[in-house]
Amino acid sequence: MRLKSKGNHFVTLFLKNSVIFYFLNLRYPVQYYLRLKGVFKLKEQKKNIFFTWIIQFIKGMVIGSGAILPGVSGGALTAIFGLYEPIIRFLADIKKDFFKNMLYFLPVGLGGLFGVFVLASPINYGLTNYPVHILWAFMGIILGTLPFLYKEAGKYGRNKKDIWITVLTAIISFIFLLFGNDVIGTGLTRNLGAWILGGFIFAMGFMTPGLSSASFLIYLNLYQPLTEGIRNLDFSIILPVGISGVFSILFLSKIMRKLMDHAYATVFHLILGLVIASTLIIAPDPILYAGFTPVNYLVVVLVFIIGLAIGYWLGQLEEGYTP
Are 177 and 281 contacting, i.e. CB atoms less than 8 angstroms apart? Predict the structure, then answer.
């Protein structure tokens, strides 16, 4: 027999507060009844939202701190953490589910800012004094998430052609990145056009996994003056770079969305190849190992294993928390 709304309300309150039920070992049936009534549903939702925000903040922190490293691709890191496709679809049609997407990506953005502005100094210190350890840590994080990127690439199926696309893309990209300095390392005159180009390069690094915008800016002799301009709040640099970057990202996101809609497997296997190449290219130069002792090598191995574990953990979490 179905209880009336008012009577049902009193039954719920009685079950929730009754000491008799608790001491009669009926706690779990009571909790089950209250769960059906939605008493605990809101608490569970709040807990899941908080946990998701923490995960997204950590990912944004890694992306932000990694993107400022020459040789590391911001786009590759977003793909590795399962954020690339959602971001592309959001930016390509920004009005669709705007508030839902904003709530999802807000902690990523905050984490990215934290990674850039707060972790920049310690990371630079680490790269100056312990470059081998820092680079192997980042390689571990990236490689730890590759199984999940591989799974994402085959979400709608894969064939031998897709595997060959990944292999060839990885080889060609690695060769290009290895000798890119000799190809484009000419430098540019620092003027308005150069900063607009710098914004476009930042956008390309974000939208093209495997492309390191910091490395290209170094090749063009724009990286150091750009970072100094940001640190000194030089708006003659910040404004053209920022405006160019925003418009370039919005434009490129529409292109990437169309490509993913029509050739998802091909696009993501290309991305997988680019990520593999851009990860291998940041391996420390053999010169940096000069003077290393067995203890130093052991520490590097431990740092790499910790990075692998963190990357794998973040990849697993992403499977359970999506927008």
Answer: yes
Distance CA 94, CA 272 (A): 26
pLDDT tens-digit profile, the chain (323 residues) = 444 444 444 444 444 444 444 443 444 444 444 444 444 444 455 556 777 788 888 888 888 776 766 656 677 778 777 788 888 888 888 888 888 888 888 888 898 888 777 766 676 677 778 889 888 887 887 788 788 778 878 878 888 899 999 999 999 988 887 776 555 544 567 788 889 988 888 888 777 765 667 766 766 777 767 777 777 778 888 899 889 988 998 888 888 888 878 888 888 888 788 778 877 877 888 898 988 999 999 999 999 999 888 878 766 755 544 44
Hey, what are 305's tokens? 């294993």
Are 213 and 204 a contacting pair, CB within 8 Å?
yes
* Spatial CB neighbours of 3, under 8 Å, sequence gap ≥ 6: 11
The DSSP-derived string for 52-109 is HHHHHHHHHHHHHHHHTSTT--HHHHHHHTT-HHHHHHHHHTTTTTHHHHHHHHHHHH
pTM above 0.70, yes or no: no
CA distances from 205 to 21, 69, 94, 144 (A): 61, 12, 20, 21
Q: Tokens 């009754």 identify what position?
A: 18
What is the rounded distance in angstroms from the CA atom of residue 250 to the CA atom of residue 92?
7
